Amino acid sequence: MNELLVFKPARDANTLRQPLVPVFDIQPLAGWDEVPGGSLSTLQKTDAYEFIWIQQGTGSLMVDMQNIPLKPYQVYSLSAGQLRKASFSNDVSGFYISLSPELFYLLANETNSAFLSAQCIGIQQVTSVQLDEETIDETGEVLRKIEREYVNNGTHRLEIIKGLFRIFLLYVAGKYVQPEQQELQNKDAQLVKEFMMLLRKQFKQKRLVLDYAKELCVTPNYLNRVVKKVSGFTASHHIQQYIILEAKRRASHSQSSMKEIAYTLGFNDNAHFSKFFKNNTGMNFTSYKRKVSA
């Protein structure tokens, strides 16, 4: 599957990394704040799945307007499309890795773990895994091998990196503690995963459970029932909340007006969007934008 991986040429310490790469990127966290426009220190919405592996030091991660403390001996996994920004202590040691959705889904299917399913399904905003000292050492060794392969031009490096990262994921998956309420039957979990993937791609055009049920070849009632069983909320709730989340992201991260955001999200009627936003957030759009801009 070499065509899935596109790598940039080797870069020295004085070369700036691009904030996003098409398929795969890895960089050490040490000295992250010395890189102008670094991919983590700038508030932005990404199209990649991201991992933060911390061996030493602490930090703070803001994801979709929620603050999450970062701790040592932890791996954090973020979904594509989230608005995020991170800061770290001066003594931080670890790695940042980003993967395209295509590569992430490929590895998720190959590893078949609850750890990655949690991100695919979208139950958790950020998935975190506590590692013990032995696993930190093992995963750290794997990531350093990936970093070396990444900047070298060795034969078969694409397959080597893919294989090494799969090993990293298996180590982490082995330490993932699945919340009791998320112990899912494979069939139900797969349906919810497919629904959430469709939702991320089509929420601007489709706002009815019926639309997604048709694509998934199930009835709307069945889809609502399974999604609620797996995630705790109905499919209709997820659709509404994803639209609201995207509206909040745009209100926080752009200078777009309510009319422009409404149109981008598929609302032709400005008043309809305004009512939809207030019903789901408890405040009108103008008040929310003023609050996050303060």
TrEMBL record:
What keywords is this UniProt entry annotated with?
DNA-binding, Transcription, Transcription regulation
- Stretches assigned to the HTH araC/xylS-type domain: 193-291
Q: Which GO terms describe its molecular function?
A: DNA-binding transcription factor activity; sequence-specific DNA binding
**Highest taxon listed in the record's lineage:** Bacteria
Q: What is the lineage of its organism?
A: Bacteria, Pseudomonadati, Bacteroidota, Chitinophagia, Chitinophagales
Protein name per its UniProtKB record: AraC-like DNA-binding protein
What is the originating organism of this protein?
A: Chitinophaga skermanii
- SMART domains for the chain: HTH_ARAC
